[in-house]
Amino acid sequence: MSTSIGRIRRPLIGGMVAAGALVATLFTGTAGAVAAPEDLQPGPEPTLHTQEAYAPEDDFTAKWTRADARQLKRLSDPAAPSRENSMPAALTMPTVPQDFPDMSNGEVWVWDTWPLTDEAGNQYSVNGQEIIFSLVADRSLGFDDRHVFAKIGYFFRPAGVPADERPENGGWTYGGLVFDEGVTGQIFEDQSYSHQTQWSGSARIMKGGEIKLFFTDVAFYRDAAGNNIKPYDPRIALSVGHVHANKNGVKFTGFDKVTSLLEADGTYYQTGEQNEFFNFRDPFTFEDPNHPGETYMVFEGNSAMPRESAQCTEEDLGYREGDPYAESVDAVNASGATYQIGNIGLAKAKNDDLTEWEFLPPILSANCVTDQTERPQFVFQDGKAYLFTISHRGTFANGIDGPEGVYGFVGDGIRSDFQPLNGGSGLALGNPTNLNFAGGQPFAPDYNQHPGHFQAYSHYVMPGGLVQSFIDTIGTHDDFVRGGTLAPTVKIDLDGADSAVDYTYGNGGLGGWADIPANLDVNSGGKVQ
After folding, report:
1. Mind listing the pLDDT tens digit for each residue in 432-449?
2. Catalytic: which of 39, 45, 84, 112?
3. Is 144 a catalytic residue?
4. Active-site annotation holds for 112
5. Rounded to two decimals, what is the model's pTM?
């Protein structure tokens, strides 16, 4: 595999990468529309959404419909040639070069990452040290084998240093693993698991340096050939520790006990009995500005239907009456799209210690749209609730196509008739992608695909619109490198139901490598200087 970047092309600032019928509005540093309606490719109109808020406990679930998701193809330029981006530059992450630095200095693979936050999403340093948590795995493992061996590790660095004054790799020091061996496996009644691993979550900083670490605790039960003996067992879990930081570094005490909080219920959220390939993971906790003092959690789930008998409805398709591009329910259900029934779940804390939770109905369903709504989170801005999630091109249902990246929705509260951003498509930040060609796989990218197709994944949206992700694969099948470290930070600007990449941020839209800045310090109680 070569490290040459000769064929990787940076998106044009202020317009489309490839010429064609679809012409993006010039981007000047503020969010705006990406195309005039008359410039869209033929296709259905998006579903009408009101953004109206409902009580968090209400039985209303917004729908990311097929009519919405088919706007992604309408945004794509059908004339974009091989290895060029077909999507609007305003919604596309700038191309990441192949000669990227490694933030761990060769110690571990790094992927899903999250900072210390409070109930409002502010990011904290502690005694002048910024701290992040990451999924890590030993580099002796193959990069694609890391998922069943994932552990939660942590990194730290001095706070308040401008990105252009840090070492190229972000200036992080790897602190090691959060949990001692065996701690997270104790919650499983069946101790015969073949693999026990830790997946993504979120970290809340409390008074006195206490950290509540919410994460996905997972047990796999597989035979020697890697086949499931029984479905895997994911739990949303909590462990509590304390952080100790000074100018010399960061260490933790505690994190020696795990409390199981939630298991998929089969009523709102699909279980292993309903589908052995179900998703239930990625807790993110927060307080709702409209309900002060109440703590909620969003997480990834699937709609609770048996895999072989799942069906989608007219409401899941979401077409307007008389739309000539509408599909029939029977045709969609017969297409295999019913295997993709992702949703975003909601739970509410029942006590102040955040050790007892109750399920609420999902806030968003994506039935017959996509199977994965990973790492959901809220950002509250300008009186609006912005719900973000991430999805793969390969997990969209039959008849839907779109880039790997961040998808966003806006409403008046945490349970709303959410409107997908940017013309109803939902796309907020996609990898450079050419929808005219197949994508391949990260370990085998398609020759004709843009080299950035798999460049970044597992995005986390930070205060002010900064977005962090990790590098997966950069390049095409004859010239690619694998990642396993954090990508450059980028920035998106939000304006109502529109968003756009800020190409004035950093160098042509790419900020510092692995740049996750704290905006508050725990002990000073004020902004990081």
Report:
1. 999 999 999 999 999 999
2. 112
3. no
4. yes
5. 0.93
